[in-house]
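Researcher: Let's do a round of design. I'm pasting the structure tokens now; please hold your answer until I've finished.
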């Protein structure tokens, strides 16, 4: 039965729109851009909102205080992830880091990612990022044939954001493939990048569309229906998608193993961990391995299965899935942030001009491209980057966390199993924190009026990467690589509105997609 009918009176839940009997607030949730709806609720219900879908509680945390009090300070019970039958179990995504239940495995995975992309190691990749950003720029300006060389920052091709998304995903995907797997993308039809593209499309537009909640997640009994049963097409799809996801995880990983065996592996996240594991094998230091589950065994290639210890199997799976998670989590997110940047530049030629003037002064007549050494001398460009993160809000409702114990916060009851959404949108659009919040205003980051602690809380980086023990492990990488792409584009390109036949500028028609990421579509010119 429903817990609140017996033990806890409904009035003790955080406030929220009134649910219908049984189905709850389903109809309150089905609007486009759910974050806009959730934002409206904050006006009526304040710092926390509660809604439910059938018996599943959804809790939106709408203020920095509520978010940090729960997701940070009570991280021990607010760091689990929803158990998704369809996405996790049936489609095999349960080992991806963003879906991993909170516990030993999640902690091991995060430790590995910390090694790869923790704040202390990012500067090691600066050279590589600078190197990889060059082909990105040249692909950008050479893809359409009409480049006009006599203009320094030159204009004049028509783009749809999709064309650019493609190039950005090649850049960030290529970079991650190199760092994580030691694979260098050389051609336009790289098999690993093509596979990633196909799989990310399946993941975000098929498996996780609608927040990843399928009827079978609400009625788990559906999964026991036989596959031929009418209406069970989700199970047939799941079989196909699961095979694809496994290929996505296994192929680049097996590539590294092959390269190691041949003695030709380029040093990478995976190769270094595998080599370290091999050399510590002799001294046998691993402890506390989980018992190998069916899943673990199934993941293993036949030739090695027989002589692997449970510890080896565990480590092998940790590396395999962590590598894929970093690779797959980096692509759509970075594309989204850069699309927001371009949109802001198209809509604010004055900001573009000021950023370019600053760059010109620093880069001088040499007309070289910017590097990380220049960052400290480019405060306005940095402000443009910070404001892009605040204004764009790439993941407006964060990824849901799941609370593992009944909890009470300021007199409100939060039931075990509730999904908790950090309402990042509500915070970054809060006029008391960021006056005139809809406006794109880099100036707001130029004068320091707060002490260090307040400043840190005010910085959009405290929000856009999520919270507590699940906070995005790629955040330091993003701060470097996205900054570099932005200033490289500012240094070499003009970004303009489209024009009609008679040369008159057209306001971009902007369309946001209703999904986990705040993807945006529009046209512009470079
Ligand atoms: C601008 C780009 C990015 C944004 C805005 C972003 C944002 C986020 C957010 C909001 C979360 C959810 C955090 C939470 O549950 O509280 C997350 C998780 C994650 N991100 Fe990112 N991310 C970006 C790029 C990257 C990159 C480049 C990587 C590569 C290392 C990455 C890897 C991950 C992983 C593995 C998770 C799951 C962490 C976990 O559940 O423990 N992200 N990211």
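Researcher: That's everything. Go ahead.
Model: Designed sequence:
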């Amino acid at each position: 039965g429903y817990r609140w009918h017996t033990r806890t009176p409904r009035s003790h839940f955080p406030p929220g729109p009134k649910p219908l009997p049984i189905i709850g607030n389903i109809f309150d949730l089905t609007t486009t851009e759910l974050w806009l709806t959730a934002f409206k609720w904050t006006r009526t219900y304040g710092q926390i909102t509660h809604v439910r879908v059938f018996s599943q509680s959804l809790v939106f945390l709408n203020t920095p205080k509520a978010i940090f009090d729960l997701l940070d300070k009570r991280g021990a019970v607010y760091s689990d992830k929803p158990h998704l039958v369809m996405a996790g179990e049936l489609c095999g995504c349960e080992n991806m880091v963003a879906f991993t239940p909170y516990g030993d495995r999640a902690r091991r995975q995060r430790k590995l990612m910390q090694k790869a992309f923790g704040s202390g190691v990012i500067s090691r990749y600066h050279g590589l990022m600078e190197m990889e950003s060059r082909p990105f720029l040249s692909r950008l300006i050479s893809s359409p044939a009409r480049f006009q060389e006599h203009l320094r920052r030159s204009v004049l091709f028509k783009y749809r954001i999709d064309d650019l998304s493609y190039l950005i995903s090649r850049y960030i995907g290529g970079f991650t493939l190199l760092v994580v797997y030691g694979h260098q993308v050389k051609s336009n039809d790289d098999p690993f990048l093509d596979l990633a593209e196909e799989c990310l499309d399946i993941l975000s537009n098929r498996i996780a569309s609608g927040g990843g909640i399928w009827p079978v997640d609400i009625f788990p009994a559906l999964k026991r229906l036989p596959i031929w049963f009418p209406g069970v097409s989700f199970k047939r799809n799941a079989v196909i998608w699961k095979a694809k996801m496994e290929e996505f995880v296994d192929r680049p990983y097996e590539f590294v193993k092959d390269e190691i065996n041949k003695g030709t592996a380029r040093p990478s996240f995976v190769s270094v961990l595998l080599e370290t594991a091999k050399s510590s094998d002799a001294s046998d230091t691993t402890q506390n391995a989980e018992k190998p589950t069916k899943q673990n065994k199934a993941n293993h290639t036949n030739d090695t299965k027989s002589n692997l210890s449970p510890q080896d199997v565990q480590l092998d799976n940790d590396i395999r899935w962590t590598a894929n998670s970093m690779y797959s989590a980096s692509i759509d997110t970075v594309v989204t942030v850069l699309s927001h940047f371009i949109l802001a530049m198209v809509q604010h030629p004055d900001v573009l001009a000021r950023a370019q003037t600053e760059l010109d002064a620093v880069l001088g007549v040499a007309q070289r491209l910017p590097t990380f050494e220049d960052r400290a001398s480019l405060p306005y460009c940095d402000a443009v980057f910070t404001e892009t993160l605040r204004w764009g809000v790439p993941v407006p409702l964060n990824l849901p966390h799941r609370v593992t114990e009944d909890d009470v916060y300021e007199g409100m009851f939060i039931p075990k199993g509730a999904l908790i959404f950090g309402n990042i949108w509500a915070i970054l659009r809060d006029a008391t924190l960021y006056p005139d919040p809809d406006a794109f205003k880099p100036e707001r980051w130029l004068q320091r009026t707060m002490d260090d602690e307040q400043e840190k809380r005010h910085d959009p980086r405290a929000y856009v990467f999520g919270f507590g023990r699940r906070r995005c492990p790629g955040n330091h990488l993003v701060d470097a690589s996205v900054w570099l792409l932005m200033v490289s584009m500012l240094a070499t390109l003009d970004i303009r509105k489209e024009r009609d036949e008679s040369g008159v500028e057209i306001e971009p028609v902007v369309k946001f997609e209703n999904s986990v990421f705040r993807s945006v579509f529009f046209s512009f010119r470079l």
